[in-house]
Amino acid sequence: MVMSFRVSDLQMLLGFVGRSKSGLKHELVTRALQLVQFDCSPELFKKIKEIYETRYAKISEPGQPPQQQPLPPPPPPQHRPPSETLSIHSSYDRNSAVTRTGLSTTPNIDYPSLYGKYLNGLGRLPVKPMKPEVRLVKLPFYTLLDELLKPTELVPQNNEKLQESPCVFALTPRQVELIRNSR
To answer: What is the total count of domains within the chain?
Structure first.
């Protein structure tokens, strides 16, 4: 379903989960596919289904009932061993919300053959990077006396311009003395 979304639909989906909505279509599709793969939740699948249904309800002819809407053609079947397939299992009652959702993936999925031009030759989706340890560079105009809090990266966690992070720490008597003497 996500593969058939327009840019505006992808932006709506990414905005729903608080991700960046800017970029080219193939970048938005990649982010949306990563959401489905890594951050699957019933709310996310419900939103995808809602966007899909609103998109194809608009396309259908005025005299045509919504149950007989034309669906886009499914992608050609891929012949792969079971260990390399991405499967989303969903069983639901047509009159209620999704009751059971599961996602099973393996890291050896060949994304270009599954998703074609949308990944623009990226090969595989990038692995979630582990946060590197942040270290301060030693410079001649300051002396590091002690470390109260570990340094953190300055990458924004959301779309807000101002980012605050409260910190609480207790000073040892030695640290109090160092601060007092450093004036």
So the answer is: 1
Q: Is the pTM of this model over 0.90?
A: no
Indicate whether 148 belongs to any domain. no
Residue 46 domain-assigned?
Answer: yes
- Report which DSSP code applies to 60: S
Please state, in angstroms and as integers, the Cα–Cα distance from residue 144 to each residue in 6, 103, 140, 167, following that order. 52, 48, 10, 19
* pLDDT band for position 80 (cuts 50, 70, 90): very low
3-state class of 67 per DSSP?
helix
Residue 15: give the domain boundaries: 2-57
CATH (domain of 31)? 1.10.720.30
Each residue's pLDDT tens digit, 133-172 = 777 788 888 887 777 788 777 776 777 777 777 778 788 8
Q: What is the CA radius of gyration of the chain?
A: 24
Domain assignment present for residue 22? The answer is: yes
